[in-house]
């Protein structure tokens, strides 16, 4: 198997094992056994268990960015602001459903190696930056000061993350339900920033 494919396979399985057992309880042997490779091969690719965890988180961050941007592109930059907002929030919850093990892994922030914490925060920063850039392109928000808009973006990112955590205990809440909860909670304030014609 080519190295790129093997790395992708190792990351996918490592993500599952970390989520099932927790970072501390997982050994490189556990992962190697499930992948069907030798432990030295994983060390050669990722250096350490912390390096493997970092690679898992970095991969999840990239995939989330791609999913969010694809949702915004699908609705188009000229769509009404509420449609753009809903598309981004919906993409986040759909991603969580499709990558449940990655989300469990990210939520173990307190239990993971210290080097992973900045990577986890970088996911939040990435989503904030991408959301801010998308909102800045919306003509309806052109006159809103950066500081105010940044504050709203942080509220959105925080709301999405907390609702996603809540959903881990409420499997009956769908991605669509979660999207509606966040949008209906935040839209009133965000729409108040749009000048009335």
Automatic annotation (TrEMBL):
DNA-binding region: 27-46
InterPro entries according to UniProt: DesT_TetR_C, DNA-bd_HTH_TetR-type_CS, Homeodomain-like_sf, HTH-type_TetR-like_transc_reg, HTH_TetR, Tet_transcr_reg_TetR-rel_C_sf
MF terms in GO: DNA-binding transcription factor activity; transcription cis-regulatory region binding
UniProt keyword list: DNA-binding, Transcription, Transcription regulation
A Gene Ontology BP annotation from the UniProt entry: negative regulation of DNA-templated transcription
PROSITE patterns with a match to the protein in the record: HTH_TETR_1 (PS01081), HTH_TETR_2 (PS50977)
SUPFAM superfamilies (alphabetical): Homeodomain-like, Tetracyclin repressor-like, C-terminal domain
Sequence ranges assigned to domain HTH tetR-type in this UniProt record: 4-64
Record-given protein name: TetR/AcrR family transcriptional regulator
Source species: Pedococcus bigeumensis
